[in-house]
Specification:
Elements lengths: L1 H4 L7 H31 L12 H4 L2 H23 L5 H31 L18 H25 L5 H37 L1 H4 L6 H24 L21
Length: 261
């Protein structure tokens, strides 16, 4: 990869920029398709659309949609922002980075409230009596909560280290590689958690393949969502792991911002 991406032995600068633009376009298409397919999956077929506390079952539908929007699409956008805007001033990219991450947290918390409410206020379909579903019992929920905790740690440490001015530059230099590595690990963890959750929901609700043994549109949409998530993650990692597309400090930033992103 270093021969292909870091040197000009195989592709020149013009070809590298075309490759970047192509992968970036693919990532945006797959990211948008991820959000749309999650919305169509939960809003169409026999899922019943969306609601809030008056219908806990349909309130759950916000969970996969907002997690796809926040913890997958927006998280990926925050990760690649320093590559996409690598020729812009660092102050702009840093502010955009933190704004996107903050938006991710809002979607994440809303999605978590949706799933916990749908469990806590679940009612028996036959009698209508309150019959809560136990929380945090599945592998998806365990991996998901660990990922959420990891994300909050990453956000807090990153905010204190890189956004608040005044911290010693050597501390920033030491922290940066771990911050970048953990961000990539979070993206992979989110992707794995989402795929487990899609499979869990499909096995629980899609009777077309669990009972009738058929590939219905509902199951097809769930599979398509999973493929879009994998494709989006692959594009994001390809962009961020390419050393040739790494942001380099502008001349006026050399003495002001010695830490590279």
């Amino acid at each position: 990869m270093s021969m292909l991406l870091e040197t000009g032995l195989i592709i020149n600068e013009y070809q590298s920029n075309k490759l970047f633009n192509g992968v970036l376009a693919a990532s945006q298409l797959l990211g948008i398709l991820t959000v749309l397919s999650a919305a169509l999956w939960m809003g169409g077929y026999n899922e019943g659309g969306f609601s809030w506390t008056d219908d806990p079952e349909r309130q759950f539908h916000y969970h996969p949609m907002f997690m796809s929007m926040g913890m997958i699409f927006l998280l990926g956008e925050a990760i690649i922002v320093y590559r996409v805007f690598r020729h812009e001033r660092k102050r702009f990219t840093k502010l955009l980075h933190i704004v996107i991450h903050t938006s991710t947290i809002i979607f994440m918390l809303t999605a978590l409230k949706a799933v916990f409410d749908s469990h806590n206020y679940h009612r028996d379909p036959g009698t209508g009596e309150l019959k809560p579903i136990p929380n945090l019992m599945s592998l998806h929920s365990w991996i998901g909560m660990l990922t959420v905790l990891g994300y909050f740690m990453q956000y807090i440490i990153g905010f204190i280290t890189f956004f608040i001015p005044g911290l010693d530059i050597n501390v920033r230099k030491f922290t940066l590689p771990f911050h970048q590595l953990f961000g990539i690990m979070l993206m992979l963890a989110v992707t794995g958690t989402a795929l487990v959750g899609i499979s869990e929901r499909a096995a629980w609700k899609h009777t077309c393949w669990t009972k009738q043994g058929e590939l219905c549109g509902q199951q097809l949409m769930a599979n398509f969502l999973g493929l879009c998530i994998v494709g989006y993650t692959a594009c994001v990692l390809f962009i961020v792991l390419n050393p040739r597309w790494k942001r380099k400090p502008l001349p006026e930033e050399e003495c002001l911002y010695p830490v590279n992103d």
